[in-house]
Amino acid sequence: MASQAHNAVGSPIERREGGAKVSGGALYATEYTPPGCVYAWLVTATVPKGRVASLDTAAALKVPGVLAVLTPDSAPRLADTDDATLAVLQNSEVPHHGWPVALAVAETLEAARAAAGSVGVAYETEPHESVLTEDPPGAYTPDEVNGGHPTERRRGDPEGRFAAAPVKIDARYRVPPLYNHPMEPHGATASWRDGRLTVYDTSQGADPVRAVLAQVFELPEERVTVVCEHVGGGFGSKGTPRPHVVLAAMASLHVRRPVKLALTRRQLTELVGHRAPTDHRLRLGAEPDGTLTSLIHEVTTHTSRIKEFVEQAAVPGRVMYAGANSLTAHRVAALDVPTPSWMRAPGEAPGMYALESAVDELACALAMDPIELRTRNEPDEEPDSGRPFSSRHLVECLREGAKRFGWAERDHRAGVRRSGAWLTGTGVAAATYPVLVSPSRATVTAHPDGLHVVRINATDIGTGARTVLAQIAAEALGVGAEAVRTEIGTTGLPKAPLAGGSSGTASWGWAVHEACRSLARRLHERSGPLPPEGLTASADTRGTADAESPYARHAFGAHFAEVGVDTDTGEVRVRRLLGVYAAGRILNPRTAGSQFIGGMVMGLGMALTEGGRVDPASGAFLGSDLAGYHVPAHADVPEVEAHWIDEEDAHLNPMGSKGIGEIGIVGTAAAIGNAVHHATGIRFRELPLTPDQVHAAGRGLV
Amino acid sequence: MKPVSYVRARSVEEATAAHAGRGEARYLGGGTNLVDLMKLGVERPEVLVDITRLPLDQVEEQPDGALRLGATVRNSDLAAHPLLRDRYPVVSQAVLSGASGQLRNVATTGGNLLQRTRCAYFQDVSKPCNKRVPGSGCAALDGVNHDHAVLGHSPHCVATHPSDLAVALAAVDAVVELAGPGGGRAVPVTDFLRLPEDVPERDTVISHGELITAVVLPPLPPGSVSRYRKARERASYAFALASVAAVLRLEDGVVSHLGLAFGGLAHRPWRARRAEAALLGARPTPEAVARALDAELAEAVPLRDNAYKVSLARDLAAQVLGSLTATA
């Protein structure tokens, strides 16, 4: 065996399925067409609250090729589920605009769509409230917030120390509803045969889908197969089963044929989750030397009437800066809106936008370099828990980024760099994201021909999971990555957690590493040829991966942005983005770089172009397709650089890695917002920074 | 399912006859807007008359120096045409600022003028919209109207016309040539597109059966300069929050010709006749320009979410006129 495995961990190898994807060979959930497959199309509620008074399916059932129209009266009964968003077509209640009220099934997609359009629905409506206001009536303090974090944490005397602080910032920031909008819309192909359910789904985890389908259809899990071979992005919106997969399975049960259901782009935003809008009040108190004496971050957000999801946007304040006086708290109002859910870096992305904007405001108030201010408040231990950090290299990221970006030459005065109508500026912000990890199983088999096959129900949502797991296996086995095949993406494989919380590679890789080490030991101990079926080892990291750590474990990063602001139009154009990350060991620089850059581009959208709009009259997410909801186009995305520092951390997992899928978005919006302030001298506190507000505020600047 | 019949026209006469002869007919050019709207249930034609094979795909110079743009010339080809780039930079710039590269490769000149508003309520068949269902009401009037009109709207409709090209065409006094069962006619583009008044379902003055065959650009005054500028929410593939097309000629420092049009502000490109009149014969000093633009925009009536458009349009126009003055 080679001592230095070829293409093992740390090598920038290309993703294995890249060729299949760009040539169209990779199949996604709704590209499977079992024999006899038919098509479903959803009818969704057009009112924000009330109930379906009557459903007229007569015209729909006359559409040639129609097999059925499922309604609450005719649809299969589902067993109770903990997730109310999945209890579809079970009663006539309408909890929000876009809620499923019927499902047409037909021999062709066109017939299904036509039938859906022919269903007559009459509603009884009730008064509704769908727009989050600054102080919403009925807002309450939840028991906990997303991620199981406490809703409120208080240390010391934050209000008193804030009142007494010689320098203080008291500011409100707003982040609008945001949509995940993965490239591949949500869809599923479901079929029943001999009491077994097989589903091709687009999900971040096939095992959680299987568990839920088994529960709602009251089947043993062994009789449910879920395949997620290729998944075109999720960003959290595929983190748990969403209604489409339940509907496809219901329809298939009802018509006794395989059924394919794909949601439209507009249906997505109301059925698969969104980032809830957040209203932030940030109060920072400091000594004249920049020492923080008080940090108060209060968040108000919305959830739906049927399920509580609370964006944990005040949580980063528990991690970031030293100080004995702090309050971080959340309030939530249940409105007549679609149910919010995870979207890339839930909590951290909006929370760090607000916190890092306020830190920048404080630096301006102190006339201090914002990097110096952050460095001065670097904690020795996690402020909230008192636990030591397993590793924390935020200051190194800031310094490395400053060097690469050319920060030293920055003139800190705001609003003074003009070239014609353009004002330019630069900004910096910090980023953080927790290290999460879950137990997983994996097996690996050494075959006589020299091939090693890793089996694990991991999901590749576009990150390169197949590739990096092969690299981890190769390193543990001491072979080249080309001698490893990875089989992932179906419930027939050893059980594994979902691709979410930036925890996939750590969780799966840990089990793969353990299985491969075990196999390597056994291979070492034996002699002679392998049996024809090969030699298999397995691992299960329950009890190790989920063991409580005495350490506070987080990735950190620093974001730098340069913007130009056109004072004629109020258009903000990002010219440069640069991120430096401390995220443990980088397992594959190529695929990791793509994830960092992708996160930064998504953060650019959050900063400048993306904002969901709620129609007050109907509670609809208006204009939510890709023409109306502006994710950045290529022309918006300039030079983007992602770098990282070598970080060794023995308290993580056998690979020494931290998650990298989400931290790229976290500080980007604040860095861009801070750069806009540096350019214009005006502080904008409501995302996105679109021409309407920038132009209106900036009139007369040039 | 609603069946659609499809006719591929081999001549203009065949096209207009096919369109006029049957029920609800639509001409199919690039289909970039029409097909979207059919999928959404907004457009429900019974007949599609495919005009993409008609011999209307040329840009031709006329004996009088005018440029005749065939109705089926693709946007990309139009924007890149040397004569257009040379003589009508404002038109080429406007085309390139619209849609995306992929859309411009299929969208046509005539179709660009006939595209429907992108008002989100118009596009959602579950919402009231007088343009889609006359008499059903206007949901945008008191709804989310950030992108809507500030000029020339009515209580029946506050939608804007989405085209960039049309704004430039308005500024250069382009004329739309129509063929119909009863013969042909020519209509200035500023009259071709209409304000909503109390019939918002009618975007244009086109009659049943009539087909746009060409758009004719008259020669611009010698020595004139032109420019198009657009403010939008992302750098590509976004409609104008406000835009400005201008053609300016100065003689001895005095305005001897001005064509000025706004996009994104109204149900059609807004030709700024009042501002033009105020500046004609005057020196276009920043103060004179500001006065003229203020006079033009004084009649703006912003809605709840779109007051920003008035100052944005004013500043954009001042910038464009300032830059043209510097180069004229």
TrEMBL record, chain A:
Which keywords does UniProt give here?
Molybdenum, Oxidoreductase
Q: Which domain of life is it from?
A: Bacteria
- Which residue intervals are annotated with compositional bias (Basic and acidic residues) in the record? 150-160
Give every Aldehyde oxidase/xanthine dehydrogenase a/b hammerhead domain span.
23-127
Q: What residue spans carry the region label Disordered?
A: 127-160, 525-548
Instruction: Read off the PANTHER family from this record.
Output: ALDEHYDE OXIDASE 1-RELATED, XANTHINE DEHYDROGENASE
In Swiss-Prot or TrEMBL terms, this protein is called Xanthine dehydrogenase
TrEMBL record, chain B:
Q: Keyword Oxidoreductase: yes or no? A: yes
Pfam (any one): CO_deh_flav_C
Q: Which keywords label this protein?
A: Oxidoreductase
Q: Which InterPro entries match?
A: CO_DH_flav_C, CO_DH_flav_C_dom_sf, Diverse_Substr_Oxidored, FAD-bd_PCMH, FAD-bd_PCMH-like_sf, FAD-bd_PCMH_sub1, FAD-bd_PCMH_sub2, Mopterin_DH_FAD-bd
Top-rank taxon, per record: Bacteria
Q: Which PROSITE patterns match?
A: FAD_PCMH (PS51387)
Q: Please give the PANTHER family that the UniProt record associates with this protein.
A: OXIDOREDUCTASE, XANTHINE DEHYDROGENASE SUBUNIT C-RELATED
Name of the protein described by the UniProt record = FAD-binding molybdopterin dehydrogenase
> What are the residue boundaries of the FAD-binding PCMH-type domain, all occurrences included?
1-222
